[in-house]
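The records we work with from here on pair a chain with its fold. These numbers are not coordinates but entries in a learned vocabulary of local backbone shapes. To see the layout at work, look at the sequence and tokens printed below:
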Amino acid sequence: MFMRRFIQLQIGLLLYGASLALMVRADLGLNPWSVLHQGLSQLTGLSLGMVVNLVGLLVLLVWIPLRQKPGVGTICNVLLIGTAADVALWALPPIEGLALRIAFLTAAIVLNGAATAAYIGAGLGPGPRDGLTTGLVRITGWRIGWARTAIEVAVLAMGWLLGGVAGVGTVLYALANGPLVQWFMARFEIVPKAQAKPAPST
């Protein structure tokens, strides 16, 4: 069971990084955290993927006062997503043509939803940014939707001020990500046998 969950975790994280690269190549607006990552990348000269990993590490340090505990998935998240994004950006050249850019954006949003559900559904620990949200919920008593919105609005604003690209893709991602993750979670969540409901008798 652990090996299955671990493999699903790795696939989910790698596909998440690939989805970020697709969204960058679409150039129609990034998700809120990626707007921040892109802005920091332009400011520092570091690759986008390197910034993704470093920000993940810094957010992980914020877990300490929030009393959040990392898991295997948390560490893998910090190491793999940015690396996968850099590899995918290297493999995917910039594209032209609005139709192709829209296709890339659509694929990125759907793939991101599936990848998020895959790595969360593996149940091996949340990503740094996910844990930041749940930690904030615990210490403030806010609803998770409000906490996530507050964090994403803040990072989006910072990223935009630093030169990150926000646009129609940012809005579409915000609208579609929640429903997509929920739909894919029903297919990718791995429930431990001890928690699985017994089949009804016939």
